[in-house]
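Why Phosphate transport regulator? Reviewers of the renewal asked for a concrete example.
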Amino acid sequence: MGIGNIFKAFQPKDKVFFVLFEKVAETLVSMSKEFHESLLEFDINDDTMLKDMSDYEHKLDDLTHEIFVQLGENFITPFDREDISTLASGLDDIADFMYASAKYIYLYKTPLDPSYTEFSLLIYKSCVEIENAIKNMKDFKNPREVKESCIKINSFENIADDVLSQATVKLFETQDAINIIKIKSVLEYLETVTDKAEDVANTIENIIIKYA
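Here is what the prediction returned.
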């Protein structure tokens, strides 16, 4: 191998990682949008949404796997390898818990709680801001825009905490023990999605602090 090729082999693979992260974020936006819209017109006898959520989750697993493959193959990375790993895992967690929320909504076959769509809208908005943040991370040229998106995601998570509290209070007022257990479980899965989005925002913000 000539000296030129050796140098090229050790050049940072910024485009590879940022392209993959952007694909993950874009897929999360599509997944969360469909999740929210499906809950607005929910039919317990139609499992199309559950199948679609499963497909999205598998697609995101594949993208996450590819990020780790690239991490193993590339000596130089656009930012810390540990941060790349944490960000990839965090984004994958959002998809996992979103799919789990959809799965238990179908498995439990309980009446659709009004707060489900409040959560799904917050999840969708969080994913949109994650996509914005990741796009603005490229080359670390727009740190202010990245931080603004992270602040919005943290705000959505705070709202989700309030939604969970209020929904739980109303749920216990029904005094239907079986449904309380089932619906409370789904509510906690939904709220966890917003927690995972906040974790991603914190990871992104830490990366920006280091490199911008």
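The chain has one domain: 14-211. This is the kind of structural detail the renewal will allow us to pursue systematically.
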